Inverse folding.
């Protein structure tokens, strides 16, 4: 039996939902970088919450497919692929926004761009660390949690669960 996790249709689906989740993450980050206010730092975490909700929508969609995803493990693996694609796009989009809104951030010659930061952000290093940690670790935490819990929450009948074929 051929595994359906790696065929072209499913790979494009992982990329599509990964791209959508990255868009959910990057919109609040773009708003934060546009206004350049240190007091609005919590909006970056809103991006990870939006990332999580897009992954949740994908898990709900997977739970409605009875024929392909009979196993909860198959749903978990598929959702984790979408999370990994979303992290890739999140980091890529964050890098693009840093090129646009932080002049000279790779060379280390960038001046401080945040208002109200008062010495906490020399050469924007703490801002960059925050942005890229949120784009990777935080999105993996929120998306991965939903990818693992979602199939067990949204799948209706788990009594006849089959093992995942890899």
């Amino acid at each position: 039996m051929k595994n359906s996790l790696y065929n072209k249709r499913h790979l494009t689906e992982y990329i599509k939902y990964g791209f959508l989740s990255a868009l959910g993450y990057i919109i609040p980050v773009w708003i934060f970088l546009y206004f350049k206010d240190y007091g609005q730092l919590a909006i970056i975490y809103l991006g990870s919450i939006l990332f999580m909700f897009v992954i949740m929508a994908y898990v709900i969609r997977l739970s409605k497919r009875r024929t392909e995803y009979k196993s909860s493990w198959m749903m978990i693996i598929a959702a984790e692929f979408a999370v990994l694609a979303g992290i890739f796009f999140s980091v890529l989009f964050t890098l693009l926004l840093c090129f646009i809104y932080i002049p000279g951030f790779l060379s280390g010659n960038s001046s401080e761009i945040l208002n109200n930061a008062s010495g906490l952000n020399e050469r924007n290093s703490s801002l960059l660390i925050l942005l890229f940690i949120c784009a990777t670790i935080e999105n993996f935490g929120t998306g991965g949690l939903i990818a693992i819990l979602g199939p067990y929450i949204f799948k209706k009948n788990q009594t006849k669960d089959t093992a995942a074929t890899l």
